[in-house]
């Protein structure tokens, strides 16, 4: 993408970027994170300026008008492109779907502007990418950003939309100590735990390893619950036994996939698997684990089996792609019913 003459002219008068923060990517997570960040920054210093940007302009417009309703004095603008968002602010946060979008936003938007800014402005710029994406892509983007003189961290999150809304996210940060220290106060306005995992890419490495465990665990919990129910066990009794035994994990004691198995809690299965972590995102994260494991020469047979199962589920039941990934239980249930029908000779194999 070529930098327009208008933008190049604007570079000469690009101050005061120091008081401004740009947030690019106002989806399910980004919307909540930007809202917390801006409202807290506004409370700290009401001369702060905010810029929002999304590929769907209506998302940014509606964010702005909602924010203005609650904070009428706020200075909040919509940037039409990541270039404009970079010109406007010294702190740039991105929360995008995955590697292709991060490559596009940084290579076509943010980095070309950083290369053209006066040195003092480039040196004071911090890019924080909260997207869950490929480790090697994140490292190469960070290398290009730091070559301009700016700082960058990868800071993927754990905690989901609920954590984003409540500002209780965990940020898993990869980057230099200096970049981490620069990012920490901003991240603390959106989350509770800000963990420096190591150099560039380390935050993503930690996030991908965690989601590898989670993706496998949710499937085996679905398998155990389905098997137990077939053996005649009450789902609430079975959940209570496993939750207080060596099989305990988040997938059974919090994100249990069987309705009424956790009477005192309200996991996504109680809302037809709405409102959790989408199966399509879990499939993406299992793919990220496979990629990085192949690069590292590390066997992940269970991870690969889990990736194949989520892929099959989304192919056969596309309606489950946007539902919580615990809906893999529904897919296992459907498979069991199909097998039973074949066994009874109701349908041919
Ligand atoms: P989302 O799809 O809801 O939001 C992504 C946003 O980015 C959308 O608004 C989209 O329009 C925008 N976008 C896409 N391309 C763009 C571009 N080129 N320029 C500007 N904007 C662009 O996704 P989400 O659920 O908010 O997740 C974001 C990231 O956070 C993903 O990497 C996901 O894996 C990770 N994550 C999500 C959750 C969750 O529970 N949703 C939890 C932890 C981590």
What does this molecule look like?
- The protein is of the alpha/beta class and 349 residues long.
- The protein has two domains: 5-200, NAD(P)-binding Rossmann-like Domain (Rossmann fold, 3-Layer(aba) Sandwich), CATH 3.40.50.720; 208-340, N-(1-d-carboxylethyl)-l-norvaline Dehydrogenase, domain 2 (Orthogonal Bundle).
- Helices cover 55% and strands 12% of the residues.
- It contains 15 helices and nine strands.
- It has helices at 5-11, 28-44, 57-70, 82-88, 99-116, 119-123, 135-147, 160-166, 177-188, 202-230, 235-243, 250-253, 279-296, 301-316, 328-343; strands at residues 20-24, 49-53, 75-78, 91-94, 126-129, 151-154, 157-158, 169-174, 191-198.
- The strands form two sheets. The chain has a six-stranded parallel beta sheet with strand order 3-2-1-4-5-6, with helices on both faces. A three-stranded mixed beta sheet has the order 7-8-9.
- Strand 1, helix 2 and strand 2 (49-53) form a beta-alpha-beta unit.
- It is elongated.
- The N and C termini lie far apart (53 Å).
- The model is unreliable at 11-15 (pLDDT under 50).
- It binds nicotinamide-adenine-dinucleotide.
- Nicotinamide-adenine-dinucleotide binds next to helix 2, helix 5 and helix 8.
- Pathway: Amino-acid degradation; L-valine degradation.
- Residues 201-331 form the 3-hydroxyisobutyrate dehydrogenase-like NAD-binding domain.
- Its EC number is 1.1.1.31.
- Keywords: Branched-chain amino acid catabolism, NAD, Oxidoreductase.
- Pfam families: NAD_binding_11 (PF14833), NAD_binding_2 (PF03446).
